Amino acid sequence: MNESLTNRQIAFIIFGVVVGYGVLVIPKTVTENAGTGGWFTLLIATAITMIFTYIITYLGYVHKNKTIYEYSNKLTGKFITSIFMCIYIIYYFMLFTMIIRMSSEAIKLTVLIKTPVWVLCLVFLLVIYYAVINRLGVIARICEIYCLIIILGAIPMHLAIFTQGKLINLQPFFVGGEIHSYLKATLVTVFPFLGIEILTIISFNKKKNNKRIFKYTALMIGFIGMFYILIVESCISVMGVDGIVHYKDALFATIRRVDIKSLQFLERIDGIFFMLWIMSILCTVSLEAYASTFLISKLFKNINFKVLTLIVMVLSFIVSQIPKSVDSVEKIMDDISYLGIVTAGLIPTILFLITKVEKYDKKTS
């Protein structure tokens, strides 16, 4: 059964799945490759993401009440669709599994120092299991609440951090001779924007999802891009380019360094950030775990969804413990980010072109 959502829920789902673990590393990634011109690189990455978001949204809008499994079957046949589904399942499964492992490592390093990583992974998976078995509608409502809290909490926080920095750390704002470097740097900003492919497993409804869905999805991607720029610029203003590149979790390192007098009543701004970050992680991994389980259920229709979810969670726990070090997990996540180009870009583009060539958009209008 495919669940339909409102335009607003879909927009918040995009925020929930895109803004997650990547916010910790995006300041270092962008600064390392584009320096103080990172804002320009992020603008380009945002524009590119908007294009692919439009393509995926268009597929859902044209093929009403269908997910990628149904409309890919119609456009390419069962054999090609099976290949596509295997790619998506591996991608979603590995992504949410490795994010859980990396998030558990980050929590152990910063807060729960004596807690084993496997225990933290298990807690994450138990929460996710409960969310996934309640299906997409419940996860969407969670995203609406959590994402609103994250936005209302994070934006004032980063604006406050920005005021504690130095303008000289942000200069030069743009160097004409470095345009090639800025463009090249967009290749390594892929991971923080991954997540738009979640739209492929959402079925659009005629009544709930009119043409305004294009505006909702595009504006949300634009907002995420501006949010990322604010994060990067606030970090650079405080730590400078030379300071950021030495920290993998540059955002957390920046927040711990800042002392905002006007927020002294909160005492620990890093504690507030950590709560917001965990909320975003829960949204991200719940959606990706659901996507993985949902697509598996399309291939194995005779297995009960709750049983299938339990199997996926158990496998995820086992796989999450296989890498022996954080460096190994990071290497896997780098490889997954390149697979994300296929799931968010290549496959939707192929289906989009077939839809246009076969004029399915005209047939269904």
Automatic annotation (TrEMBL):
The residues that cross the membrane are 9-27, 39-59, 79-100, 112-133, 145-162, 182-204, 216-241, 272-291, 303-324, 336-355
Q: How does it sit in the membrane?
A: Multi-pass membrane protein
Where found in the cell? Membrane
UniProt keywords (A-Z) are: Germination, Membrane, Transmembrane, Transmembrane helix, Transport
Q: What is its main location?
A: membrane
Domain of life (superkingdom): Bacteria
Instruction: One Pfam family, please name it.
Output: Spore_permease
Q: Does the keyword RNA-binding apply?
A: no
Q: Which family does it belong to?
A: Belongs to the amino acid-polyamine-organocation (APC) superfamily. Spore germination protein (SGP) (TC 2.A.3.9) family.
What PANTHER family is this protein classified in?
SPORE GERMINATION PROTEIN A2
- Cross-referenced NCBIfam families: 2A0309
- What is the protein named? Endospore germination permease
